[in-house]
Amino acid sequence: MSIADIKKNAEQKMARSIEAFKNELAKIRTGRAHPGILDQVQVDYYGSLVPISQVANVALLDARTISVQPWEKGMGAKIEKAIRESDLGLNPSAQGDLIRVPMPPLTEERRKELTKVVKGAGEDAKVAIRNLRRDANEQAKRLLKDKAITEDEDRRSQDDIQKLTDKVIIEVDKLVQGKEAEIMAV
C-alpha cells in the first residue's frame, strides 16, 4: 500500500461518512413535509416488513402534506397503521385509496430539541471522520516503520490527510448549520 492509496482510501471513507450523515439529517423532520421522512417506516407486506416506498407511491400534496397512494387495495389500512405507530408523531387520514399525512407544526421547544439532536449527530460524524484520520495516519506510520517511505513523505501525508479532514469537517459544519436553519424557520 502506498501513501496515495492511503489518502484515496481515507477520502472515500470520509465521503461515505458524509453520505451517512446526510441520510441521518434527512430522518430529522422539520415543519415542512418531504417524502423521505417516511423512508424508515416499515409496513407488513404478506408477512415481511418492507419500506412504504416499495408498496405505495409517496409524494407531496403541498408544503405540509404527504400523500401515500398504495398500489394494492388492501394495503391502505396497513400503511396507515404503520405510519401511526412509527415514532414520527404523524397522524395519517385515509380518503378513499389516498392516505394524507399532514405534518404538524413544530413548537419552539421541539425545534430547540431537534437542533440539539442535529448538533449531536454532527459531533458523531466529526468523531467518525477524526477516527478515519487517525487510521490513515497509523497506516502511514506503519509504512515509515517498515522503511517503505521517508520521514518527509510521512509528514507530507499527515499534512495532506489533515487538510482533507479539515475540509470534510467544514462540510459537516455547513450541513449542521443548514439543517438548524431549516428547523428554526417557521
Structural summary, described in words:
- It contains four helices and six strands.
- It is α+β, with helices and mostly antiparallel strands.
- The chain folds into two domains: 3-27 and 107-184, Ribosome-recycling factor (Topoisomerase I, Chain A, domain 4), CATH 1.10.132.20; 35-102, Gyrase A, domain 2 (2-Layer Sandwich).
- The chain has a four-stranded antiparallel β-sheet. The chain has a two-stranded antiparallel ribbon with strand order 1-2.
- The mean pLDDT is 86.
**Percent of residues in helical segments?**
55-70%
Order of helices and strands: HEEEEHEEHH
Strands in their spatial order, largest beta sheet: 3-4-6-5
Q: What's the architecture of the largest domain, going by CATH?
A: Orthogonal Bundle
Q: What is the number of E strands?
A: 6
Secondary-structure-based class equals alpha+beta
Mean pLDDT: 86
- CATH topology-level fold name of the largest domain: Topoisomerase I, Chain A, domain 4
* Straight-line N-to-C gap: 52 Å
Low-confidence stretches: none
The shape is: elongated
**Please, what is the CATH homologous superfamily of the largest domain?**
Ribosome-recycling factor
Number of helices: 4
The largest sheet is: 4 strands, antiparallel
Q: Determine the strand fraction and express it as a percent band.
A: 15-25%
- The domain tally reads 2
Radius of gyration: 22 Å
CATH class of the largest domain: Mainly Alpha
Pfam families: RRF (PF01765)
Subcellular location: Cytoplasm
Protein name: Ribosome-recycling factor
Family: Belongs to the RRF family.
